[in-house]
Design brief:
The chain has 264 residues and is mainly alpha-helical. The protein contains 12 helices and no strands. The chain has one domain. It is 78% helix and 0% strand. α1 runs antiparallel to α2, α7 runs antiparallel to α12 and α10 packs antiparallel against α11.
């Protein structure tokens, strides 16, 4: 993989992990357009590195919240902090279940299926449009809400379904305050990313080669910086009810992806 390609894919990952436009879908489109001929293990390794970069950017932006989460877990008291920590854990169950028992089936979707990406982006656009029309509330996340949002996160494993778009839209449609929805959406994915990374590394399936270090390094930096920007920006956009613009974007890109897939 060329360095310029690594930078482009890193920026795409950093922006689309937080912006509700599907990072996995855009990565698949990016690989298809750039003609990425990497073998699956190389492609998987680079994707893992980029996801770690965006997870790290989340920890930086929400460092105060992460501290409260950890404090809540180890206080062993039934207070607001410990309840929020347990809700984060509860929300992870559906995606963790899919990752443990259906990982091979899910990886089959990441094989340059541009048509699938296009159709899933259209669905993302619909979710964002509906969420943008939702009324303002002050409702907090409940345990039942956390599980339902977790189901949305599990479905977002499909390339083209935006994880942040699906989880934030589901939260807002459940009546949860938009700021709280964005905060919960971004925090709930970090443990899953780190867990998936650990699983992939321990499995020994990733074949690392020395010449990959520079492209992976610049890709990591690009994804981290872009992630910091996108995470901060997205919080402001959700508060101001600007999701409809992303709905339009996803709809247009979805149509382009469908056209590209049919042409090729």
């Amino acid at each position: 993989m060329e360095i310029i390609d690594a930078i482009i894919l890193g920026i795409v990952q950093g922006l689309t992990e937080f912006l509700p436009v599907s990072s996995s879908g855009h990565l698949e489109l990016g690989k298809a357009i750039l003609g990425d001929a990497s073998i699956p293990e190389d492609s998987l390794l680079f994707t893992v590195v980029l996801h770690f970069a965006t997870a790290l950017s989340t920890l930086v932006v929400f460092r105060a919240d992460v501290y409260e989460l950890l404090k809540g877990l180890f206080q062993f008291k039934w207070n607001e902090e410990s309840q929020f920590s347990l809700k984060i854990i509860f929300s992870m169950i559906p995606a963790a279940f899919i990752g443990l028992f259906y990982e091979d089936q899910m990886e089959g979707f990441f094989s340059g299926n541009v048509l699938l990406v296009g159709y899933m982006l259209i669905i993302t656009a619909l979710l964002l449009y509906l969420a943008d029309k939702a009324k303002e509330t002050e409702k907090k996340v409940t345990f039942l809400n956390a599980f339902i949002i977790g189901v949305s996160q599990a479905i977002a494993v499909l390339p083209g379904i935006s994880r942040s778009g699906a989880t934030i839209s589901t939260s807002v449609l459940l009546g949860i305050d938009k700021s709280k929805a964005a905060r919960f959406s971004f925090l709930m994915v970090v443990p899953l990313i780190l867990g998936k990374m650990g699983k992939d590394i321990m499995s020994g399936e990733i074949d690392y080669q020395g010449e990959q270090i520079i492209p992976m390094g610049v890709g990591f930096i690009a994804a981290f910086i872009a992630g910091l920007f996108a995470c901060t920006w997205m919080i402001q956009l959700v508060r101001k009810s600007k999701l409809r613009y992303f709905a339009i974007y996803c709809f247009i890109v979805g149509l382009i992806a469908i056209g590209f897939g049919m042409y090729n």
